[in-house]
Protein: Catechol 2,3-dioxygenase-like lactoylglutathione lyase family enzyme
Amino acid sequence: MKIIVTSIFVQDQEKALKFYSETLGFVKKHDVPTGEFRWITLVSPENQGGTELLLEPNNHPAAKEYQKKIYAEGIPATMFGVEDVHKEYERLLELGVKFTMEPTKMGELTLAVFDDTCGNLIQIIQN
Structure:
C-alpha cells in the first residue's frame, strides 16, 4: 500500500493553483471539471510520478471549520521537504511569501512555516 494522493483544503482553487505552481514550483498533473469545482492535483517537479497534492475546495462547513481552527492555532496543514530551508526561505521571501516562523533548528531538523494565502500554514523542513 502507498499514498498516491493527499489533499489540502483551499478557499479558492484558482488562487491555490497559481500559488502552488507559480510560487512553490509544483507541476500541475490533473485539472478536471467536477461540477462546481475541479479535481486539481500537483506533483513535485523532482518526482512527477509520485504522490499528488489535491487542492480540495473547503466548501463543506466541517472543512471550513477545521481549516480555520488549525490556522488559528498555528498548526501547519502539511509539510514539504526541501534540500536547504534557508535558501528556500530566502527565495520565497523574495516572491512575497509571508512566514509565521523563520528557519528554526529543532534537534537535527530545520523548519520554517509560511502562509499559503489560501487559508493554510505550510511547514517546510530540512532533515
Summary: The chain has one domain: 5-126. The chain has a mean pLDDT of 97.
